[in-house]
């Protein structure tokens, strides 16, 4: 291989990896899915999330509380995100 030349498949893989990590819309989608999933799990089986209110697993309890208390706003954000993913991209 020539000095200074890299394989194009490695370059495309690293570009794809960087865009997935630093894509703001992907981060928002993951956060919305986490909030909706935690709120649903808490509505079906509240004991799973209520026993872990602090620590690392407390993040899921906090996401469930956000999903419950801000449900109209979360629903609007989910619809807007779905529209942008389906029709804008």
Summarize the structure.
The chain has 89 residues and is an all-alpha fold. The protein has helices spanning 8-21, 24-44, 46-50, 58-69, 71-88.
What does this structure look like?
- The protein has 89 residues and is mainly α.
- It has one domain.
- It has helices spanning 8-21, 24-44, 46-50, 58-69, 71-88.
- The chain is elongated, with a radius of gyration of 19 Å.
- The two termini are 37 Å apart.
- The mean pLDDT is 80.
- Involved in the early part of the secretory pathway.
- Pfam families: DUF1242 (PF06842).
- InterPro entries: KISH_domain, Ksh1.
Keywords:
single chain; 89 residues; 5 helices; mainly alpha
Strand content: under 5%
Which structural category do the helix and sheet elements fall into? mainly alpha
- Low-confidence residue ranges: none
What series of H and E elements makes up the topology? HHHHH
How far apart are the termini? 37 Å
DSSP strand count: 0
| Radius of gyration, in angstroms, nearest whole number | 19 Å
When the domains are counted, the total is 1
Q: How many DSSP helices?
A: 5
Shape descriptor: elongated
Mean of the pLDDT scores? Answer: 80
Main sheet makeup: none
What helical percentage do the residues reach? over 70%
């Amino acid at each position: 291989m020539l000095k200074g030349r890299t394989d194009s498949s490695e370059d495309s893989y690293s570009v794809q990896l960087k865009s997935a990590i630093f894509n703001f819309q992907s981060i928002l989608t993951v956060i919305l899915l986490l909030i909706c999933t935690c709120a649903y799990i808490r509505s079906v089986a509240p004991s799973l999330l209520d026993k872990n209110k602090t620590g690392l697993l407390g993040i899921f309890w906090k996401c469930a509380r956000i999903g419950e208390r801000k449900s109209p706003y979360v629903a609007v954000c989910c619809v807007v995100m779905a529209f942008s993913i389906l029709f804008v991209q």
